[in-house]
Write a structure and sequence with these properties.
The structure holds 2 protein chains of 2 kinds.
Chain A: H1 11-29, H2 59-62, H3 80-83, H4 86-100, H5 103-117, H6 119-128, H7 135-146
Helix pairs in contact in A: 5-6, 5-7
Chain B: E1 3-7, H1 16-29, E2 34-38, H2 44-49, H3 60-65, E3 77-78, E4 84-87, H4 96-101, H5 109-113, H6 116-121, E5 124-128, H7 135-143, E6 146-151, H8 155-174, E7 180-186, H9 194-207, H10 220-227, H11 232-236, H12 240-258
Parallel strand pairs in B: 1-5, 1-6, 2-4, 2-5, 6-7
Antiparallel strand pairs in B: 3-4
Helix pairs in contact in B: 1-12
């Protein structure tokens, strides 16, 4: 008599969950990618520029908060082994982006977000808030007020 | 600083509330200052602790709504155990899915309300999540350091974990990179059932160190304790359920220490 198959066709699900959990544990234990070749990658949040020469933070860049075309670069490092695993690479990149976002970058992203949401609100915001104010606080209050 | 742990599984009836209550009490018994947060609009945890959620002047709903400027500390209530407090649920939370999702910051309402002083007042904050992957659960995961996933050793429970993992991965990527799975907790295990034995073997074999060594065995005393608005420790400290949760608390403390 053959043994009853009580757990049915669950092996694939078990395997899938097990591998994802294992990957999570490994990522936690080794959060930083090793320093090797530098490659840039795009994200949904930002639009990285191809112009690497614009490295110097000039006065112009500091006062260009209203410039919606301003883009951001990342110093994220992609190693050979990461190229084989896009999901892992993407996760590490996002984490890197979050930890490296400067206050100024965060604010400018915030302004971009506001401007893309509703032009009417944005005009009102522009009239009452200056990007030279305490930006974090200003942005926070704007978001709370309008959204 | 308190470690925040979400007790989460979108499947209902897997032992989230029982685990939050009894694990919280066991941690308090170990000398850890513990805060329970009941985010489930069903209010079972709050009711079991003996709180009349309808009689609250202000509740966690008001804090999350952020209209009155109330701090989270203002809705903390004492329990019978001097080292365990609770933030009760509120019936208004049942409408939170619709109300909160309209807000741009809907995923960070809880994290914004948890101040440093609350974190300093406790060693552990356990959040009892609702049985869904909606805005309340997302808020909890966005705030937490760890998640514990209670799971019955049955096939439907397995499908639930698959879905939960997708949400977990998304939140970890987009909102809370520090979020970590502390482990899957096998609950309601009935040693007489071959299915439970085989599922448990598979869970351990595939999930490896992502599973708690402690297994919460099926135990009527756990349910009887709930009927009496008590933890299993208060109802019958010699019961198997009490021993299981005591063991789990030690495992949790050990895990956090090693991090």
């Amino acid at each position: 008599m053959s043994k009853k198959d009580r757990t049915g066709k669950t092996d694939d699900i078990f395997k899938n969950i097990g591998e994802r959990m294992k990957k999570n544990r490994q990522t936690k234990e080794d959060p930083d990618p090793p320093d090797e070749e530098i490659v840039e990658e795009e994200t949904e949040v930002t639009e990285p520029t191809e112009n690497i020469e614009e490295n110097k933070e000039t006065e112009e860049s500091k006062t260009s908060s209203w410039n919606e075309d301003q883009s951001y670069r990342s110093s994220f490092i992609v190693t050979g082994d990461m190229e084989n695993d896009f999901e892992d690479c993407r996760r590490k990149f996002r984490r890197n982006l979050k930890s490296n976002l400067s206050k100024q970058s965060a604010i400018e992203l915030g302004w971009k977000l506001l401007s893309s949401l509703d032009e009417k609100y944005f005009e009102e915001v522009k009239a009452t808030h200056s990007p030279d104010d305490d930006l974090i606080q200003a942005l926070k209050s704007i978001i709370e007020e309008y959204y | 600083m308190a470690k925040i742990i979400s007790i989460v599984n979108q499947k209902g009836g897997v032992g989230k509330t029982t685990t939050t209550h009894n694990l919280g009490y066991a941690l308090a018994e170990e000398g850890e200052r513990t805060l329970l947060i009941d985010l489930d609009p069903q209010m079972n945890l709050s009711t079991t602790v003996g709180i009349d959620c309808y009689a609250q002047k202000n509740s966690i709903y008001d804090v999350l709504r952020d209209k009155k400027g109330l701090p989270l500390g203002s809705v903390v209530k004492k329990t019978e155990h001097d080292k365990m407090d609770i933030i009760p649920s509120a019936f208004e939370l049942s409408g939170a899915e619709i109300e909160f999702t309209k807000r741009i910051s809907s995923s960070s309402l809880l994290s914004r309300s948890i101040s440093n002083s609350i974190r300093e007042d406790y060693d552990y904050i356990l959040v009892d999540c609702p049985p869904s992957l909606g805005v309340l659960t997302i808020n909890s995961l966005s705030t937490s350091d760890y998640i514990i996933i209670p799971m019955q050793p049955e096939v439907y429970g397995l499908y639930g974990i698959d879905m939960l993992l997708s949400t977990y991965e998304e939140i970890q990527e987009e909102i809370n990179p520090k979020l970590e799975i502390m482990g899957v907790l096998i609950t309601m295990h009935d040693g007489r059932l071959s299915l439970h034995k085989e599922m448990t073997e598979k869970i351990n074999s595939y999930f490896k160190d992502n599973v708690f060594k402690t297994i919460i065995k099926t135990n009527t005393t756990l349910k009887e304790a709930q009927s009496n608005n008590q933890t299993v420790f208060e109802y019958d400290g010699r019961a198997r359920g009490a021993k299981d949760y005591e063991k789990l608390a030690r495992e949790v403390i050990e895990y956090v220490k090693e991090r």
